[in-house]
Amino acid sequence: MLTIWGRINSHNVKKVVWLAEEIGLPHQRIDMGGQFGFTDAYLAANPNRLIPTIDDDGFVLWESNAILRYLADRYGPEFQPADAQQRAAADKWMDWQFSFADAQRNAFIGLVRKKPEERDENAIAASASAAGKMVAILEAELERQPWLSGKRFGIGDIPMGVYIHTWLTLPIERAERPAVKDWYARLRKREAFDRIAQVPLT
Ligand SMILES: N[C@@H](CCC(=O)N[C@@H](CS)C(=O)NCC(=O)O)C(=O)O
């Protein structure tokens, strides 16, 4: 059976749990990282001191987006376009998500993890602004096609789905982005994502 290590409030763990549930893959999740710390056995499997890591019947893998690609290749081909160019076009949004995470990080940490008196308001505003500029790029893509994966939902939608949930939840100023909002609403209709999205930001 698939084991997923990582606390469920982690963006990168949410992605993997979401896909496992979309595929209907039996799995167990074991808390690790954050307040749970790391066991020596975990660090032997993933020396990065980061989550998630999976063990699929003895095959150990870390890096959340590599895990998404592996699980889709092995168990959920319907979640990836078959055509190489369509697949690459979807794939780029998975890599782009890491740049978005960098942009949004100070707003997330400042507003969710820090006490009001500890907050660096300038860093939060700069981060919210940088993330907002990137969402304009996402908006343009979602005006052209219904999903980041193309005509159908796929793993290209998962990383940014998790991060846009955070963007829409943080108490920051946001421009109106109707195509992004519509895409997010369609993602929320998927049971697996709706469950993930109900995990409070912490
Ligand atoms: N590129 C890595 C990033 C992993 C990462 O930064 N994970 C965060 C949680 S989202 C982490 O492990 N933080 C330390 C901790 O939770 O203890 C991936 O996608 O798997």
From TrEMBL:
The UniProt family comment states: Belongs to the GST superfamily.
Q: Where is the GST C-terminal domain?
A: 83-202
**Position of the signal peptide:** none
Q: Which GO terms describe its molecular function?
A: transferase activity
Q: What is this protein called?
A: Glutathione S-transferase family protein
Organism encoding this protein: Qipengyuania soli
Q: Where is the GST N-terminal domain?
A: 1-79
- Pfam families documented for this protein: GST_C, GST_N_2
Keyword annotations: Transferase
